[in-house]
Write a structure and sequence with these properties.
Layout lengths: L3 H23 L5 H40 L12
Helix pairs in contact: 1-2
Amino acid sequence: MSSLKDIHTLLDAAVRAGNAASDAIASHAANPFAVMLLQRTRLATSEHRKSRDELKVAMIALHKKNQSIALKPVDIPPKKSKK
């Protein structure tokens, strides 16, 4: 099972690949198919970017939540004495 960090790394790679593909496709702007492909590539890249950014925010929030839980003192009731 992949960790959140692994998934974030993969989404980041997808964004970088999408940007590179957009640059390569843009050089063929005279071709109508290339224009359509460029639009779809940019849309997919923006969705990957959005997912990557949302995941990063969730990872930060989870990290902060785990830190606050670790810092809270645990209330342990006193042991009852046997009489």
